[in-house]
Amino acid sequence: MTTPTVLKIKTGSIYEEKESYSRIVAVDNWIFVSNTAGRNYKTREMSTDPIEQAKQCFVNIEGALASVGATLKDVVRSCVVIPNPADAPAVMAFVGEKFRNVDPASTVTCPPLGGPDYKVEIEVTAYRGAGAATAEYRKVDLSATV
Length: 146
Fold this sequence. Notes:
By secondary structure, the protein is α+β, with helices and mostly antiparallel strands.
């Protein structure tokens, strides 16, 4: 059995050090991107608008994925956290556009985040090369009894 290659990427955030986590952990072709807020990492600014925060989340996530040779098309799972349920339809419409034809497994939750300024956070799991693979789509009736 071969030992997998594990790459841990840090951005220099004080929280990565204080809370002992990595922005990205890549294990061979699996890529795990930590919960990502809509803060511009260069300016440290964060919009008060949930859609603008969602846009910045994707800028941050796409940069993180690019740092390990992956793209948004490689995402196989997402988790979107939106503390205010009233913001969910608009935020998820935007998320749906970003993931159009990617179609990852997805979770959406509405618990509180680390502070009232945070309107959206997104976490993704990707598999390097998944975007180039042929996807097979099936419809199933989940109400059928087995």
